[in-house]
Structures are given as structure tokens and as C-alpha cells.
Amino acid sequence: MTKFKIVVKIVLSISLLLICVSSNAQKYYQPSIIQPSWERDYPPFRIAGNLYYVGTEDLACYLITTPSGSILINTGLASSAPLIADHIKKLGFKLSDVKILLTTQAHFDHVGGMAEIKKLTGAKMEVEAGDAGILADGGNSDFVFGGKGPLFAPVKADVLLHGDAVVKLGNMKINVLSHPGHTQGSCSFLFDVKDEQHTYKVLVANMPSVLDETKLSGMPTYPNVGKDYAYTFNAMKNIHFDLWLASHAGQFDMDKKHKPGDGYNPEAFRDQKGYDAALANLYKAYLKKLNGK
């Protein structure tokens, strides 16, 4: 083979490789709202009892451990799946012990890594029925972000949760609170965790923020979005808990309650006033949008 033919062959091989890489990189549509803090690493830590934080700086993911296995809530973006897996290992737990996967909402920034984590753990995906379709088509049917192709690897639910369901694993019972609006299947989780001295009732709240693109009069694929928001705001005013967390770390001011390297301190997350204020601010924004101001 002549030198010219060898060079041509190498160039063609490199071109083909670049095309493949480019094709894979553009496989999923990514909205422009992604923030650096959504992917930035954050050291995992114990929140309270058998509840741990394993998310990124802002995209909150939670691990609940039991003698019968673990439950993982949310996975962040697709790019964060290896990070979440590493956090679980750093805390001393096994990926194979994760038996149930949950999510507060089927948006790409909370379930983007779900398919990969499901593959790594073999866990069952349990999702509120209203979000099952969005999860199954990779977000392409999302009423705000959909229509431009899948945003993440699709995940078929193993179990559909209806209404105020209860998820059970070992000695854990997680109450699923239906809080639709942000997505059709948005939900919060309410459960007890225990340490050596106390039992804490924990709320992982899916805070009802209203996206700019959402029309409360109704969306083509979500005509009842306004009514669902009204229901959710009313329902979330009456939840009783000891500690509260949310889908985004910034929503419950985690940076003010825990710094990397801080010791175990569940009481830092006892913040009823913070929850009430956050909910009130979101309600004001909702009313402003509802009234067209």
C-alpha cells in the first residue's frame, strides 16, 4: 500500500470516528437552562439517620438505606450518573443494594441519569403515573421541554404509583404525596428516619415553581395545569414534618445549612419558617402569572 493510500485511509478513519462521536454527543436535546451547579460535584453526607445526600451541588439526590436494601430518589442529569454512583460507594454502600428508584419529577435534570443508574443497580423504577409517559419517551412528550426529541435515555416504569401511594422496603414506608403542576406526576415524599437518639419525619418537597413557558390557562398536552397548581399549593400548606429538603439544594438553602466537611447535624434541616417562606414566595409568583402581571 502506497503512503498516499495509507494517509487517505487514516483520514477517512478519523473522519468516521469524529462523525460517530458527534452523533453520540447530539443524541439528546439539552435545554439552555442547564446551570454549572447542576453538574458540579458535592461531597455526599449523612443528613439524618438512614438518609443521605448523594446529589450534585444543586440537583438533589437522596439515598435511604434499610437492612433490606436502599432507595434512591432522583439522579440528576445524564452526565451525573457516574458521580451519583461514586457518591453511594464513598458512603460505604453498594450499588447492588439499591432496590427502588423514585423521582420527585420527570424533568431531564432529575431523571437524566435514571436509565444508567437502573442498569448499574438492577433496581425497580417506581414513578407517579402522571409522569410515566414522559419517562418512557425520554422527555419528548414533556409539556414544556418536549417536542424536539428525547432529552434523556428512556426508562420504562416497573411500578406505577397512583394518588397518595406508599412505597415500602424493609422497615421503611415512604408516603408519596401527589403534587402535580410542575409536571403531571410531580410528587413529594414524607417518611420517618431514625438515628441513635431521635426519629425525624422528613419531607422531600417538590416545590411548585412555575416555568416561564407554562400557561396556567392550559397547555396543549396538559389542559389542567392551572387547576393542578392550585391543588398543590393548598395541599403543601398543611404538611407536618420535622426536617425538609427539596428537588434542588438551592430551594432549601442547603449551602447555609451544610458545608462540605461539616459533621452530622440533622437539626440544621429543621426549618419550618424557611419552608413556609419558600412556599409563600412561589405562591406569589403563581398568582402574578395567573393574573397576567
Give an overview of the whole structure:
By secondary structure, the protein is of the alpha/beta class. It has a single domain (33-290), classed as Ribonuclease Z/Hydroxyacylglutathione hydrolase-like (Metallo-beta-lactamase, Chain A, 4-Layer Sandwich), CATH 3.60.15. It is 30% helix and 20% strand. It is built from nine helices and twelve strands. The chain has a seven-stranded mixed beta sheet with strand order 1-2-3-4-5-6-7, with helices on one face. Strands 8-9-10-11-12 form a five-stranded mixed beta sheet, with no helix packed on it. Strand 2 (51-53) and strand 3 form a beta hairpin. Helix 3 (81-90) crosses helix 5. The model is unreliable at 3-26 (pLDDT under 50).
Q: How many discrete structural domains?
A: 1
Class of secondary structure makeup: alpha/beta
Using only CA atoms, what is the Rg?
A: 21 Å
> How do the SSEs run, as a string of H and E?
HHEEEEHEHHEHEEEEEHEHH
Give the integer mean of the pLDDT values. 91
CATH architectural type: 4-Layer Sandwich
Low-confidence stretches: 3-26
